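Re: that backbone. Tokens:
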């Protein structure tokens, strides 16, 4: 096959080595073989979970998120299905290359697994299981992002090198690689402890096996749904009986899941990854400050208000100060409104809605007029540490009281209704002023200055940094990212139960998650839409949503997005359920045009 020799870029071991001497020699010692195993992680660490823009590939272009302030002229490939312009066909280059860099490394390690002198087959298979688990994860993401891809299961040799690769359909890759690899991994990987990080364990393999089996439903298959349910139930049973077999756990309260003190040894995470950086070196091929980047993606533009500024001191706090790119849609926020009109407790646990001043500030005439304050606010002062910005939801207990103060408070008060339209299911781009002055009118023609401030997801916030260069504000986030956690397993079981049993037990599974969060239990018949909504509430910002919409058929046409994210629906085409294969790659093969996905 062509991939590794021509288009990939492993930084240490070259994938194509005609003599096959270096890797063969390495594999004859345990230390050398484990060097090959370590190479399997390289692309995962560099391009995937926690790294730049992987969040956008898995959460962007969905019903839950729009670009910051709902602007549709930037990051269009991530949030707007290209916004009606010609598709960018090179932005996926890193992940395409990274996939086959990772797959190639895994294939080498698997093929050479009989060489190192391990004393037991259990030790040998545990190491091979790491490579097979990672290969499954690479391919899982590859088929969900790109559809049919070239299936490679053996190391490349001069004899197998080709300039006209063929593509294998997703179900075949699931059947012949992803599912067998995950079954093998679930049998041979160690149980690990809560401190185990990056290296997959049995519960990670079982979790991904349940996830992958369920995802095959996207392709019209029901063959693996029972395995999805049975595997999920194995983890659930273990979790509910003390975790003795697989070390599974679910925190008794939702607030504990993302508490920073629980991050490194998070008990609920089935698989997590974190980086190391210190004076003695670092564990990132991107540099000692480009570690877990998720903390940079979700904060609204609080620095647009004069009582805030982006500075090094604030960047090192849990609150943070880097303006992100993800803005929750009206649909996402509406998911937290319960049938009785109250807010699901997860809303205020998951989203920050208040920010204090990080500098002294005095309201001037310009700001007063811009933010629709009364003239009496001119000259009012905010000291560092005072409440500076507050976003209020109509369901908040203090909403009515706060609403009365919106034009006179000495802090910037943002009413949900100023930012979001429930009637149109989108973001208000214009605003009608109450206090009409100068160019600020009450006819709704002014730019909405409030749309820059919105609830900001805080699941990935951090105060745990390695300061690489303070003067350049280069800080490496040392917190782990959770790739999958136990709560998702209950939702996998619920969805599989609907497909298999009409949902007879689905309420029991979904309500375990809701009751833990303090939300009202769901009653009556549970539907796939109920599961999809619950996954939005529980798992938003956790690498799931793009795949969720594909699996549940919401990308077959624009109808679902028209009802949940109409601003995005206008740019949707079913072809965009698959990403473009990088034309940097297709330009190097002889069948590039036919290899490309439709619509690109």
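Recovered sequence:
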């Amino acid at each position: 096959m062509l991939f590794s020799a021509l288009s990939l870029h492993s930084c240490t071991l070259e994938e194509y080595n005609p003599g096959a001497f270096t890797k063969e020699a390495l594999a004859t010692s345990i230390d050398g073989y484990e060097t090959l195993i370590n190479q399997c992680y390289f692309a995962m660490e560099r391009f995937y979970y926690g790294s730049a823009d992987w969040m956008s590939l898995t959460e962007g272009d969905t019903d839950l998120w729009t670009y910051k302030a709902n602007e549709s002229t930037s990051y269009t490939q991530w949030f707007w299905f290209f916004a009606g312009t010609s598709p960018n066909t090179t932005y996926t280059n890193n992940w395409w290359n990274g996939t086959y860099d990772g797959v190639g490394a895994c294939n080498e390690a698997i093929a050479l697994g009989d060489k190192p002198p391990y004393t037991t087959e259990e030790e040998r298979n545990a190491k091979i299981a790491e490579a097979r688990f990672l290969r499954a994860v690479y391919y899982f993401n590859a088929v969900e992002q790109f559809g049919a891809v070239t299936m490679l299961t053996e190391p490349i040799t001069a004899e197998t090198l080709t300039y006209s690769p063929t593509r294998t359909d997703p179900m075949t890759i699931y059947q012949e690689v992803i599912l067998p690899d995950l079954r093998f991994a679930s049998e041979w990987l160690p149980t690990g402890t809560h401190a185990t990080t990056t290296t997959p364990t049995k519960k990670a393999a079982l979790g991904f096996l349940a996830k992958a089996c369920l995802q095959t439903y996207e392709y019209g298959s029901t063959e693996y749904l029972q395995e999805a349910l049975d595997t999920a139930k194995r983890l659930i049973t273990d979790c509910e009986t003390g975790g003795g077999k697989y070390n599974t756990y679910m925190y008794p309260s939702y607030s504990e899941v993302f508490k920073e003190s629980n991050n490194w040894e998070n008990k609920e995470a089935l698989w997590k990854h974190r980086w190391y950086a210190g004076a003695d070196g670092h564990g990132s091929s991107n540099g000692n400050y480009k570690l877990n980047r998720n903390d940079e993606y979700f904060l609204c533009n609080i620095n647009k208000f004069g009582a805030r500024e982006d500075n090094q001191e604030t960047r090192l706090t849990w609150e943070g100060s880097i303006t992100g790119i993800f803005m929750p849609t009206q649909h996402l926020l509406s998911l937290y409104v319960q049938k009785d009109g109250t807010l699901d407790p997860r809303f205020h646990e998951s989203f920050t809605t208040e920010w204090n001043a990080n500098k002294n500030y005095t309201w001037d005439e310009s700001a007063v007029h811009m933010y629709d304050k009364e003239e009496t606010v001119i000259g009012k002062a905010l000291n560092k540490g005072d409440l500076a910005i507050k976003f209020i939801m109509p369901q908040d207990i203090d909403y009515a009281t706060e609403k009365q103060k919106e034009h006179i408070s000495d802090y910037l008060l943002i009413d949900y209704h100023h930012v979001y339209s429930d009637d149109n299911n989108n973001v208000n781009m214009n605003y009608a002023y109450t206090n009409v002055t100068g160019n600020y009118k009450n006819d709704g023609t002014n730019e909405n200055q409030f749309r820059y401030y919105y609830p900001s997801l805080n699941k990935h916030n951090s105060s745990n940094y390695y300061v690489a260069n303070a003067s350049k504000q280069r800080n490496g986030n040392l917190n782990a990212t959770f790739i999958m956690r136990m709560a998702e397993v209950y939702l996998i079981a619920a969805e599989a139960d609907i497909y298999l049993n009409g949902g007879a037990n689905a309420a029991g599974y979904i309500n375990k998650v809701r009751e833990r969060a303090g939300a009202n239990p769901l009653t009556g018949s549970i539907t796939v839409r109920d599961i999809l909504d619950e996954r939005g509430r529980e798992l938003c910002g956790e690498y799931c949503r793009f795949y969720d919409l594909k699996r549940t058929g919401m990308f077959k046409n624009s109808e679902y997005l028209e009802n949940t994210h109409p601003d995005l629906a206008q740019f949707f085409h079913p072809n965009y359920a698959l990403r473009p294969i990088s034309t940097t790659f297709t330009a190097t093969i002889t069948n590039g045009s036919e290899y490309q996905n439709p619509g690109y």
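The CA atoms of residues 289 and 476 lie 4 Å apart. The chain has a mean pLDDT of 95.
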